[in-house]
């Protein structure tokens, strides 16, 4: 989505008041999020989660799996298949170390929050049953285990080639918690399914982008502007193949300005 757009007022969180804004912009933390996709007779579906109300950021929001980058995600020892870090760095306009960390964070967070693992025993296979890695998943969530150690212990290769770069949004400067988030898309690997077994979500499930946006319009869920924009992009695609074939590179960095405009919020890009 490259133009300004409106989001229903009921679908977005309350905007921060002038009195609550920090005197200086707070530091931005790097983050990665993945839009997991699957084809159905009703069209493309994307996996979404509603964050629990106790979360410090985006509490109660409906989001894609994702989270902050861990310093260990940049470990160069990780067995890797797909575009090299230099290529991801070019696509996202960052250095190679950060690019590697972002791709690894995308894979790690997706596994932690949905149980979907974008890895395989070699560069041309994917895991078709992740249930045997439940203990490792819990250890990753607890930060007792790094992604590099997990993959090395299991003999798995990270399948970066299953990811595609899609967007890069930065939290506006008036917010008290800010993220520079890279959005990726990936097809659900054959034999796997996404679950809601994470303490960070109160509910999870597959929805068509149009249905998810309708829930936001009706006030049944809350969607941050980037999520709304991503859903709008996906709603325009016929199937997962079309999404994956869409070239969004180089990925521009977007920091929106939000302004209440009657019964909606104008997102200015």
TrEMBL record:
Zinc-finger among keywords: no
Keyword vocabulary terms for this entry: Hydrolase, Magnesium, Manganese, Metal-binding
Entry-linked InterPro entries: NUDIX_hydrolase-like_dom_sf, NUDIX_hydrolase_dom, NUDT19
Range of residues in the leader sequence: none
Lineage: superkingdom: Bacteria
UniProt KW Manganese keyword: yes
Domain called Nudix hydrolase: residue spans: 27-236
GO molecular function: hydrolase activity, acting on acid anhydrides, in phosphorus-containing anhydrides; metal ion binding
SUPFAM superfamilies cross-referenced by the UniProt entry: Nudix
Requisite cofactors: Mn(2+); Mg(2+)
Name of the protein described by the UniProt record: 8-oxo-dGTP pyrophosphatase MutT (NUDIX family)
Species in which this protein is naturally found: Prauserella isguenensis
